[in-house]
Amino acid sequence: MIEATTRAELEQIAGRYPVARSGLLPMLHLLQSVQGHVSTEGIEACADILGLSTAEVTAVATFYTMYHDEPQGEHHIGVCINPGCAILGGDDVYAAVCSRLGIGHDQVTADGKFSLERIECQAACTHAPVMTVNWEFMDRVSPEAAVEVIDRLAAGEQVESTRGPKIGTWRDAERVLAGFDDGKSGDGPAADELMLAGLKRAKELGMKAPAVGTQKAGE
Ligand code: FES
Predict the structure, then answer these.
(1) What is the pLDDT of residues 50-74, one digit of tens each?
(2) Whose CB among 13, 46, 151, 161 lies 3.0–4.6 Å from 136's, allowing a Cys bridge?
(3) Cβ < 6 Å from ligand 1: which residues?
(4) Residue 18 sits in a domain of what CATH number?
(5) Which of 93, 125, 137 has most ligand 1 atoms within 8 Å of its beta carbon, as the pocket-test mutant?
């Protein structure tokens, strides 16, 4: 059942956009923050608010891998297995995490504490291999460090991302993805030396992006 407060927040999200259906993605994140997954009732509520069919909402909710129709863990662990991370040890990190949790891709531990996902490139290749916890980064993580993070979370300890922010729950993160500010956006560095290395080199070489509209067809 969708509570009145959740329904009101879903309507609030839809109201942010000139075309209400543009709010569907953050609305689905809000459902996950409240229910831990996208439920049938949640799909019906979104369809009703947006004037869509439940089939249309279901099509979106099942197309993107960040939405789940089964309850996820309190902490959602992601391990990047794309080549940039894999060749620097990402596959070993993934194997260690699977072994520690006793689950594989898209599965949840029996106690509901953790869910695990093999994730695609997170645009954090400069810090490979990366693991995410509730979408916060653990940069240059080793198999041992990954298991230690999970041990600490399992023990109820406060864990920080290697980029600074304190890690909450997956549902907390889903609420932020729904567009509700948690007041933590200023935590941690905005960008570090490695992230800015390409920009620095481009400046050294005097490179500039072409002005909009000046490119010829085929360039
Ligand atoms: S390949 Fe893992 S973050 Fe890009």
Answers:
(1) 999 999 999 999 999 999 999 999 9
(2) 161
(3) 80, 82, 84-85, 121-122, 124-125, 128, 130
(4) 1.10.10
(5) 125
176 Cα–ligand 1 center, Å? 23
- Which among 129, 144, 169 is the end of a domain? 169
Going from the C-alpha of 35 to that of each of 29, 69, 83, 176, 206, the distances in angstroms are 10, 10, 34, 15, 51
pTM of the model: 0.88
User: From the CA of 93, how far away is ligand 1's center (Å)?
Assistant: 13
Strand order in the sheet with 107-108: 107-108, 114-119, 75-80, 131-133, 136-138
Query: Is 119 found in the same domain as 38?
Result: no
Domains of the chain: total: 2
Helix (H, G, I), strand (E, B) or coil at 119: strand
The answer, yes or no, to whether residue 98 has pLDDT greater than 80, is yes
| 86 shares a domain with 35 | no
Please indicate, yes or no, if residue 68 is contained in any of the structural domains.
no
Tell whether 161 and 91 lie within a shared domain.
yes
- Whole-number Å distance, alpha carbon 121 to ligand 1 midpoint, is 4
Residue nearest to atom 1 of ligand 1 (CA): 84
On whether residue 111 sits in a domain, the answer given is yes
- The range of the structural domain enclosing residue 59 comes to 4-63
